[in-house]
Amino acid sequence: MGKPLSATAVSVTATYRAFVSAQNGRNAAALTPLLLEGEDFLWVTTTGHTIRGRDAAMERFASNWRGTWSLVPEFDAVTVIDVAPEVALLHVPVHFTFAPPGEVAQEVTIKWSGLFRNADGGWRVAAILLTPVA
Length: 134
Description:
Layout: H1 7-24, H2 28-31, E1 42-44, E2 50-52, H3 54-64, E3 68-73, E4 79-84, E5 87-99, E6 106-119, E7 122-132
């Protein structure tokens, strides 16, 4: 049996599960409060495009959700690292299926890394850094 998860790892993983569920359900109302409020939120896509701020991220999600959008993380492979008090990094392989509306969906595997910050009474995604897997 593996090492028991820290309280931080359990909480951050629960927030990440809610994040994935909200995305797969195209539920903006559930996703918005999971992202760090304001311009401090950062998202770097697999193509290197940078999105700054929660509002800009939500606009991008809304656009992406018009097509095919599905995240299937390998939850057995989640790694959570305590970076500093109230800050943690979660890393996980994700099978990502996507396509713009009317186009054929493609599935790729990405490495999803997220910086989480404990703010406003709960863990929030502060940064998303995506790496394609060749």
